[in-house]
Amino acid sequence: MSGFADFALDRAFGHPRGLLGALGGALMARGNAAAEQQVVRSARLTGAERVLVIGPGPGVGLLAAGERASRVVAIEPSARMRRTAERRCAALSNVTVLDGTAEATGQPDSSFDIALSVNNIQLWPDRAAALAELHRVLRPGGVLLLSTHERWLPGGRAGLHADVQTAGFAEAQTWAWKPPSRGTTQAQTRAIRP
Ligand SMILES: C[S@@+](CC[C@H](N)C(=O)[O-])C[C@H]1O[C@@H](n2cnc3c(N)ncnc32)[C@H](O)[C@@H]1O
Q: What are the chain's domains?
């Protein structure tokens, strides 16, 4: 791909900013909604959980999690996406959107029951550091749920599965999930923080 195309894609979707970021946010809110909703459904929230959402982008899954959990903290490095996600969740007092990254969430040890991430693993500059951070902030017995576009996932499903195990998670399961209508096949992993 050309340098300009890479630049535009990163500005729209990878690290959304400016007008392209606004456009990317609107496209992601539609195109990724099925995956965001499916991951939140798979968390089987009961209203009692403390949930960490990594890279919520425009906040479709964040809203769904906020409606089903006790407390939700979202970590999002893009200021534009933080504003969009905050607007989408404005009616929910249990949702907080903070600046940060998967590698540095700024959250206390063992403070979440569930950590989930949709469509941003491929953007983490250091996957091992990010998984170590999610291991740190999950309580023992806490659940890690990861999902992303399989076609853009470095190392593929097998690599993701191995990295999750190397980070110290147990009972890892990894599979492919195809959204019923729009959206690309997702590589998904579920694992437990021992
Ligand atoms: C492709 S968008 C996906 C957004 C949303 N989860 C969705 O599926 O529509 C990727 C998001 O991850 C965020 N992001 C980029 N690098 C990140 C990192 N190192 N840690 C956490 N989030 C990151 C971006 O700012 C962006 O909002």
A: 33-192 (3.40.50.150)
